[in-house]
Give the backbone structure.
Amino acid sequence: MSGLAGRGDMARCIPGAGALAWERTGRGAPVLLLHGLGGERHGWQPLLERLAGEFELWAIDLPGFGGSPPLPAAVAPGPEELAEAAAGFVRAHALPSPLPVVGHSLGGWIALELARRGLASSVVAIAPGGWWTERERRRTSALLRASVRLARALRPLVPRLLRPAPLRTLLLAHMVHRPWRMPAPAAVRAVQSFAAAPGFDATLAAIDRPGCRLQRPEEIASPVTLVWGRDDLLLPVRQSRRAASRLPRLRALIRLPRCGHAVMWDAPAALAGAVRAALGHRACRRNTPD
């Protein structure tokens, strides 16, 4: 059981939904949480702690990350395919459809894809992918490949290396603006999951293609809140202007100072407030009994 408010059903696999690992925390209207490339469901912990008293939060591991196996080898795990896996999870659990979705990075891209399909009633997209230029795509992909090579090489030493705050700062500065504030156990888990993810290479290859961007954003009819760290080194904040200009139902664009790519660790209270404001009056109650 989770130590957070409400029920915390942990990491059960649903074969009919691609055997996705998941965690449900809290009580209230269901909200789906989608992590980014190389992440996993435990990366939402700062947000879960703040919102479990108001929402039923479903954090899943996308295929090939955390406790979820990759998609079949014949399926390229791009945003559209991962959106279908997330939609299958929603169907398998009889969750409301559409329902609110919160996504970070690649997870934000997937959340917007779900909204384009009419499967997300509202979206909070935290530094979502899919808005880069070709030059930015190449730079981001190179940074991710270098990061995962380093994480894999250092994996046996990670628990010792990330214990001191100065080394944590050195190794995580490209993702977290203030890495010394991230608890060492959380940092160790994040880096080890990043290094061990069996779906990382295939997923990066699926999005690191010329012209690979969010398709037809003008078809998104759901309200969208964009949240971006002003000091994001992975997906720079200038991409937020492109996203804002093309989303027909942009509810808010929130740029947070002194925040990097991992906003949930740099500014968890501000992020929780943004989610609360975006979803508080739009979340759908469950149609089925507990």
User: Anything to note?
Assistant: Residues 1-17, 281-290 have pLDDT under 50 and may be disordered.
